[in-house]
Write a structure and sequence with these properties.
Blueprint: H1 6-13, E1 19-23, H2 27-35, H3 43-54, E2 63-68, H4 70-73, H5 83-89, E3 93-97, E4 102-104, E5 112-114, H6 120-129, E6 134-141, H7 150-169, E7 173-180, H8 188-208, E8 217-218, H9 235-249, E9 256-259, H10 266-279, E10 285-290, H11 292-302, H12 309-327
Parallel strand pairs: 1-2, 1-10, 2-3, 3-6, 6-7, 7-8, 9-10
Antiparallel strand pairs: 4-5
Helix pairs in contact: 7-8, 8-9, 9-10, 10-11, 10-12, 11-12
The structure holds 2-O-methyl-1,6-di-O-phosphono-D-mannitol.
2-O-methyl-1,6-di-O-phosphono-D-mannitol is lined by residues 22, 24-26, 29, 67, 138, 179, 260-262, 290-293.
Length: 338
């Protein structure tokens, strides 16, 4: 379709209260998730679980795109159906996680950079040729004693920009994910300060490399206190600080912002997104690209048993619908009992 350029796709992904399912857990991460429900992680169980999510009736009313791990992109279920084609058939854009995980800067440092840039262009080709519409690259910024260093923020920002440019050159929409991690004793103001510095640096790097800001999406964290700070989550304050931080750092041309859930509970992730959208007076569509906050309830319900497939799908559909309502600022706690 000629209209399907990167600007068009970036806009479509965040239109009409739709968001992204992040189902791109690497082999180690999905193993941890499956351990939590006592299910062995192997190709077959991973395929069954993800096929269950993607086959959820009506899911494309709320989900416009799914980030896949490379195994899933080329995987077929026991009926020989391609998981990626299933998404295409329901008008859900297939995307692909293209970073290769984290590496410490050196053995004395706990700060990391994201691996995979040298081989990225070559690795993108098979996905671009087989229908991927977008890509995702995650950088991690930790808060702690004397960290993050400017070196860490600059290096990761520069890698994100290089990744975004390579994606766009391959006609794929980059989803730029600089995640300021929630773990730690820091307060909400520290999270604000570090996120602001990081986003400023990310957009400096993106502009330096001439990345088309209209043909990308930003996937940031919300501004929350560290999980060991002892601070209670104040939903209104989080929403106000998140919007203030984004307004100060993100250029208007960016068509949409899709938040990560970063360890927030499913309900908190929905509630904060809803509050943000109630307060939003910007031109951006503010939506979700949740992994855990969309999947954890469904994962528990499934528990590795095929007879739980339908009820797990109901739960997944419900969470997606709640987050879609939150994109319009129309979620309410009473709807949770639907
Ligand atoms: C689903 O988790 C993604 C993959 O993580 P690993 O590479 O560590 O397996 C992750 O990148 C995810 O897309 C985002 O961080 C958002 O997920 P959450 O769970 O924070 O919403």
């Amino acid at each position: 379709m000629s209209k399907e350029n990167i600007q068009y796709i970036a806009k479509k992904i965040v239109e009409n209260g739709k968001g992204i399912l992040a189902a791109d857990e690497s082999t180690n991460t999905i193993k941890k998730r499956f351990n939590s429900i006592n299910v062995k992680s192997n190709e077959e169980t991973r395929c069954f679980y993800r096929d269950t999510l993607f086959s959820t009736p009506d899911i494309s009313k709320y989900i416009s795109g799914v980030i896949l791990f490379e195994e899933t992109f080329f995987q077929k279920n026991s009926s020989n159906e391609s998981l990626k084609e299933k998404l295409e058939n329901i008008n859900c854009y297939p995307g692909i996680k293209v970073d290769q995980g984290l590496e410490e800067f050196n053995k004395d440092s706990i700060e990391t950079y994201t691996k995979g840039i040298e081989t990225l262009d070559k690795r993108l080709k098979p996905f671009a040729e087989n229908g991927a519409k977008f890509t995702k690259w995650r950088s991690v910024i930790n808060i702690g004693e004397n960290i993050p260093s400017s070196h860490c923020i600059e290096e990761n920002s520069s890698l994100l920009a290089e990744y975004a440019l390579i994606s766009q050159n391959n006609k794929l929409v980059p989803i730029v994910e600089p995640e300021v991690i929630m773990n730690g004793e820091h307060n909400i103001d520290k999270c604000y300060e570090v996120t602001k510095e990081t986003l400023n640096q990310v957009f400096n790097s993106l502009k330096e490399k001439n990345v088309d800001l209209k043909g990308m999406l930003l996937k940031p964290n919300m501004i929350v206190p560290g999980d060991k700070s002892g601070e209670k989550l104040n939903i209104k304050e989080i929403a106000e600080k998140t919007l203030a931080c984004l307004t100060k750092t993100v250029p208007e041309e960016v068509p949409g912002i899709v938040f990560l859930s970063g360890g927030l509970s499913s309900i908190n992730a929905t509630m904060i997104l809803n509050e943000i959208n109630k307060l939003n007076s910007t031109s951006w569509n503010l939506s979700f690209s949740y992994g855990r906050a969309l999947q954890e309830d469904a994962l528990k319900m499934w528990a590795g048993k095929s007879e739980n497939k339908n009820v797990a799908q109901d739960i997944f559909l419900h969470r997606a619908k709640m987050n879609s309502l939150a994109c319009h600022g129309k979620w309410d706690t009473s709807l949770e009992n639907e």
